[in-house]
Structure formats: C-alpha cells, structure tokens
Amino acid sequence: MTFWIDTHCHLDAGEFAPDVAAVRARAAVNGVAHCVLPAVEVGNFAAVRRLANEFSFSYALGIHPLLVPRAQDADLQVLDAELALRKSDPRLVAVGEIGLDYFVPALTESPMRERQEHFYREQLKLARKHGLPVILHVRRSADKLLKHLRELVPEGGWSGIAHAFNGSQQQAMAFIKLGFKLGFGGAVTFEPARQLRHLAVELPLDALVMETDSPDIPPHWIYTTAAQRGAGQAQGRNEPGELPRIAQQVASLRSLSAEALALATTANALQALPKLRALISC
C-alpha cells in the first residue's frame, strides 16, 4: 500500500473529540501511516504530546499567530522550558505552528501586527536555540516571514515546512532556497485555485509535502458554500484519511503516479523534519 505522511494535522481539535480513534483508524486504512500534530498555544502542548504518543505520531510545540492576542509574554518562557524538557523526546520534531497572519483584519493593525512579529521572531530564536525545524503559518505574510528567517539563520541553515503555502512562485523559491518544504492540502483540489495548482505542477518535486490541516481546509468534495451553510448544511470535517485523495489530484496535475508522489513527499518530509526518520520505517 502507498505510504503517506500528513505533515500538518490538528487531531487535538474539538471536532475530533468524539471519535479521534476512529479517525486515526480510517487514516491507517487509507495508507496514512503518520501524522505531525502541531500545537497552537501553551494550553494544548500536553494534548498534542499525548495524542502523538497514543497513536505513534509526532508533534510540534509553538504559539499560533491567530492565538497571539490571548498569549502572554510568559508563554514564550513556558515554550522554552518545554522544549528543553522534551529535548530527548523522539516525537518532538519541530517548533510550530508559528508564523504571521495578515488575513484577519484585527491582526494586521498596530499594535497586534507588531505583537505577532514579536512572537514569531522569539519563537524562531527558540527553534534556533534548541536545534529544531519550524512549521510556519503563512497567510498573506510570506515576505515578512522570509525577512525574519534571513535575519536569524541558525548554524547549518533552516529546515521545516511552510504550511498551506499559497504565495507567488518567487516567494515559494525563496522558502525553498532557505531550506523549507512547502505544504499542499485541500485547497489545491479546487479548480479555481489556478495559481496554487500551477505551483503544485511547476515547483520542484523535492520541495513538496502533503498535509490536511484537518479539521480545516476541506477538499472540494467536503467543502460547503456559505449558501449551503446558511441553509443549514454543516461544513464537512476534513481528516487525515482524506490525504491520499487530495494527493491523487496533485499527482494527476503533475502526471505522476500516486506511488511516485508518495515516495517523493515522504522523503521530503523526512528531510524537512529529520527526527521523523527514527519514527518511520519506509
């Protein structure tokens, strides 16, 4: 069976609380053998670690830019301490999910814009200090993310993943040049997403990793429109088991077999997050 890694999945989200074991089982049946579970705030550090151990997955620790408004400066100290405490944990593979979000209006105005940058920059320093890759949240913020990455390059360079990438080809190549892989998920399944689908075809194969961001970013066969939701239809829940079908669309766009894409993206994930190698036999 084809082997897939979901490099970005929030199994600790409330949407999965009723049936998380069944979600994991469906993923396994569909060939998704491993998921990376990024934290989003100090309060869910323990949850992602517990799930990673329960299901033999891996996890990352960080403070998400959308949650910066309720984060405290002391949370950075907590993150630093937790990274030090878990240094020898083979399942801790990155600092993340961290980054900048310039899509949500309330986060793009001062002083919150500056506070986002402060948390992002300080977490880059922690990743550098603890020798870990980073998992980046990139939403209308690629150039600013790149600026700080260039200013804080660790010895040996960066590694990690620009999650749910949807920038320009020039920006994509800049992340790749710095050592990052680019995450593709449900958004690429929408035919109107021409720029994203173009990137999925034109970028080097060794730069791509697959992800779901579940329960978010549902593929087109799950997504419900605003009109449908207004009529009472619930938004479909994305989950790791959808990854092979999402990946098949990328494979088709690139005129590749699913097996070839699985081999390439698995190798890319192991390069982006080197501690995965000890967890995965492939």
Which characteristics define this entry?
single chain; 282 residues; alpha/beta; TIM Barrel; eight-stranded parallel beta sheet; 11 helices; 41% helix
Question: Could you describe the 3D structure shown?
Answer:
- By secondary structure, this protein is α/β, with parallel strands linked by helices.
- The chain is built from eleven helices and eight strands.
- It has helices at residues 20-29, 45-55, 74-85, 105-108, 112-130, 142-151, 169-178, 194-202, 226-230, 243-253, 258-272; strands at 4-6, 32-38, 58-61, 92-101, 134-139, 160-163, 180-184, 208-210.
- Helix 2 links the parallel strand 2 and strand 3 (58-61).
- Helix 3 (74-85) packs parallel to helix 5 (112-130) and helix 10 (243-253) packs across helix 11 (258-272).
- It is globular, with a radius of gyration of 18 Å.
- The model has no long low-confidence stretch (mean pLDDT 96).
